[in-house]
Design goal:
Elements (H helix, E strand, L loop, with lengths): L1 H11 L17 H11 L3 E4 L6 H6 L1 H22 L2 E7 L22 H16 L4 E6 L2 E2 L6 H9 L7 E4 L3 E2 L2 E2 H13 L4 E4 L6 E2 H12 L5 E4 L19 H5 L7 H9 L4
Parallel strand pairs: 1-2, 2-3, 3-8, 4-7, 5-10
Antiparallel strand pairs: 6-9
The structure holds NADP nicotinamide-adenine-dinucleotide phosphate.
The site of NADP nicotinamide-adenine-dinucleotide phosphate has 21 residues, from α4 and β2.
């Protein structure tokens, strides 16, 4: 989902983009990475591939680590061999979600899911292989062209105006974030390298219930929604109560992410 918007954003800005994807390029098979990279000689690799289904990661631990840790290490090694910078994408799931305020890059990581553990292991693998040449951008609550995402699910469920009131979780907080907003940040990072870990979700915060309410309002959907608690939707992987990421570091280097309401409006008006 992110890779799709990113490729079009970079191309539209005049960059030469080579997209590497399955089945030709598999991040678990280093030889496929080196073949793709030697052909395109990139200045920067942007690594969006991952096992992203958090519940599946709980039941497929080995695969989650193979993709999110070993795969990320392979991409970092390939970037080093090519003399390229690497921008990797990570997640709020590296935290346990128990903090009462938004997470800073310097906060202690303590993932409570296999997805979070494997993504954190991937962050560390990148830092080990490419200590001076990487940026890891942590994002959260992502939606974008093609989905799948919470926005896509809500648009589908909301279209049924006769349906039962829809229960949406109101005790998890995060920063709804569009792939376009992240892609614009990654575009900016090409000319403004920021080393290390950087939080890059949209500004402003919401619960899933508030996020759903704004999607319905912007689209004029009339299905009723009701707030509910996390316990009413038990899932294999624990959902963090607090997914909010503090962007103070990003603001201090001169970049401000858009407010999530504006980004959502842009997405739903079809401008993305
Ligand atoms: N979605 C979110 O809410 C969210 C939140 C925070 C962070 N992130 C992070 O943001 C990044 C992009 O997420 P996304 O939502 O755009 O994910 P996505 O749509 O699931 O895209 C991940 C892509 O990786 C591909 N992939 C899987 N295994 C691969 C392999 N061995 N070699 C090469 N490609 C492989 C997948 O291909 P197939 O589809 O064919 O398997 C898929 O196209 C990820 O690092 C993710 O962890 C996402």
């Amino acid at each position: 989902m992110l890779g799709r918007t990113l490729a079009s954003t970079l191309s539209a800005a005049g960059h030469t983009v080579a997209v590497a994807d399955l089945p030709e390029v598999d991040i678990t098979r280093p030889e496929t990475l080196s073949a793709a990279i030697s052909g395109s000689r990139p200045d920067t690799l942007m690594h969006c591939a991952a096992m992203t289904k958090v519940d599946d990661c709980e039941s497929n631990r080995d695969l989650a680590f193979l993709l999110n840790e070993t795969g990320s290490r392979n991409v970092a090694v390939a970037a080093r061999s090519a003399g390229a910078r690497l921008i990797g994408i990570s997640t709020d799931y590296v935290f346990d979600g128990k903090k009462s305020t938004p997470y800073l890059e310097t906060d202690l990581t303590a993932p409570s899911t296999v997805y979070g553990m494997s993504k954190l292991a991937g962050e560390r693998a990148i830092a080990e292989e490419l200590p001076d040449q990487y940026t890891i951008v942590r994002i959260a609550w992502l939606y974008g062209q093609g989905g799948p995402s919470f926005v896509h699910t809500m648009l589908k469920l909301g279209a049924d105006s006769q349906g039962e009131p829809l229960k949406v979780v109101d005790d998890q907080l995060g920063n709804p974030t569009s792939t376009l907003a992240v892609s614009r940040l990654l575009l900016w990072l090409l000319d403004h390298p920021v080393p290390g870990v950087l939080h890059g979700s949209c500004e402003g915060e919401a619960s899933w219930y508030e996020f759903a309410g704004e999607i319905f309002r912007l689209r004029g959907l009339r299905r009723a929604i009701r707030p509910c608690r996390t316990e009413e939707f038990p899932r294999p992987a624990l959902r963090p109560a607090n997914s909010r990421l503090d962007k103070a570091r990003l603001r201090s280097v001169g970049y401000i992410m858009p407010d999530w309401h504006r980004a959502l409006e842009e997405f739903l008006s079809g401008k993305e």
